[in-house]
Amino acid sequence: MLVSWDQEFVADKNKIFKYGTIKLVVRFQKLDADETAWYPECTSIDNIPYAAKYRPITVEKYPGVVLIPNADIFNYQELQEKYGFELQSDRPEEALIHMYKLLGITAALNEIQGEYSFILCDNEMSYLVRDGTGTRGLCYLEYPHRSGPMCAALRASLLTSYQHSVGQIRHVPLGSIIYGDNRKEWRRKVFTSVFRQPGYRPDLLTPPCKNGISLLGQMRARLRDIIKQIITTRNKSATIGKVGLLLSGGLNSRVIGNVLRDSQVKGLKTFFVGTKTAHERTSSENGAMSIGSIHHDIMFDPKQAFEEITKVIELAETYDTASIRKALLLYTVCKYIHQHSAIDVLFCGEGLDDIAGSQIYYKQAKCAEEFQTTLENNLRRPIGREVFDKIGSWFGIRIVFPFLDPLFTSHYLSFTSEDRIPRFGIEKYFLRVCLDHSELITEDVLWKHREDWVDSASSFDRFWVKHLQRLCSKAVDNEEFAKREETYLHNTPTTSEEFFYRQTFEKIFPEQQSLVPVIFRPSFGVGTDPSPRTWNIYPQHLCVDFLATVRMMV
Fold first, then answer.
1. Which of 254, 337, 456, 531 is most exposed, with the fewest beta carbons within 10 Å of its own?
2. Are strands 44-45 and 48-49 parallel, antiparallel or unpaired?
3. C-alpha distance from residue 174 to each of 79, 334, 374, 383 (Å)
4. Element (H, E) at 67
């Protein structure tokens, strides 16, 4: 469903809901015999309406206000108690309406803890809001001859059927509010306010040395407490027995798993996906035994995944190679969960490596300033993050990212770049030191080499991406590939794999190449492919024995 500010989008096949001067345009279909069970068209899989969470919310107390959310609000109960309002529905997102009316949009967002993007319309004003994590998408359609958005939706695919030939679909920037006056045409200048965005150091006031513990020591202890707090808070939003975790065997997912275990989560399910030769399978199984979870080992077949690429690109709404590779793995996981294991929330360690600067190319930074500049640039480009929500929501699964919580990101980034830069050939060295000798992680996992999720799904000698690339190459016409620079001026493909993804994307989203502003390229000239295994510094990275290095320094 989408919100339209343009009369041209109102068609006979749509059901129109009017809220003040705006129109909520919804095309409905009936999914069962129940006459009341109507949902937006083309939003179901096996009669499970994946977009049910996108349904609009209204509150009788505030007529004329409508909210279309893609949100998980984790502190809604605390907000209810603090500000004295009651929810009229069973949807925590409703708290956004109450907080907006009580405090105004910007002040309300500073009180909210969650992951969200939403469209809020209030008679005279409309707001497009996207948080700073980049995990939830929000798009609008823009015309050159008009001053502002003509319509907006939580997914780009909902806008393609309404676009005119000259219309371009744009993303709402991270941590931004775009708003306009409904009483007239949108203002010529679309105002954007950055209220919360990872990558910027906050003003953090910490008490001086206390009880013999240094300021740095206190901040490290506070970091561990924050990690436990944000994971526990997110778990409260899940149904008992319906909590899952993507468990790769590395540091990120093991920390989440250990906190969930200590929180005595009942029926915790863990999931690993990989080919038959995946070298991280043993680490994942050991982690599941340590956590005490119900473990699911999901077999990944690159050939079968290739057959699903068109659907995956349609859902992911991108042609970025790094994002599509992740999306193929995630699609396999979510499809399995949908068929075999009903869960409500799927925890994911994605995002921590973005905040901590864990990619091995950060070791090439010559100084702390260069490290920080590269980190901030990457944080502003959330490549691949919203893919998780788009794939998960199709299967009715909420995927949460505890390490992208502003409470964690602001505290971690408040340490100096000199603290956070890689040291002794060890990526995210400072984070590892902060977690050392804590109950959050064992030593053998803490000082383990970081392995990219895509890479960890297969062995070194039978890398599944190589198989995928061969399949893409066979599907590409050589003559068309030779003319790629003439065909695609924006983000020109450089490989057969990229070209195949781009062709598939253009068939689904014609003339919308700018929907993907940038594609991932590794920094510091270490390579051109997204996979760290292909980078020229990868063999050197494996030569460093992290644990032995740390023990030598003690």
1. 531
2. antiparallel
3. 24, 26, 17, 12
4. strand 65-73
Residues 112, 102 contacting (CB under 8 angstroms): no
Tell me the pTM: 0.87
Q: Give the span between the Cα atoms of 221 and 434, in whole angstroms.
A: 8
CB 66 within 8 A of CB 107: no
Which residues make beta-bridge pairs with 253? none
Q: What is the pLDDT of residues 423-449, one digit of tens each?
A: 888 889 999 999 988 889 998 899 888
First to last CA, the chain: 58
Report the distance separating Cα 289 and Cα 9, nearest Å.
54
Give the contacts of 129 (CB within 8 A, at least 6 positions apart). 105, 109, 116, 117, 118, 119, 120, 138, 172, 176, 177
Token pair in block for residue 233: 């808070």
CA–CA separation, 40 and 179 (whole Å): 25
Q: Token pair for residue 314?
A: 């349609």
Task: Kindly state the tokens that stand for 365.
Answer: 């930074």
Sign, CA torsion 500/504/507/510: negative
SS3 10: coil
Query: From CA 532, how far away is CA 110, in angstroms rounded?
Result: 37
- Phi, psi dihedral angles at 63 (to 5 degrees): -65, 145
For the stretch 169-181, pLDDT in tens is: 888 888 888 887 6
- Specify the pairing of strand 114-122 against strand 65-73: antiparallel
Q: pLDDT band for position 370 (50/70/90)?
A: very high
Cα gap 447→436, rounded to integer Å? 9
Contacts of 347 (CB under 8 A, 6+ apart): 231, 234, 243, 244, 245, 246, 253, 256, 260, 399, 400, 402
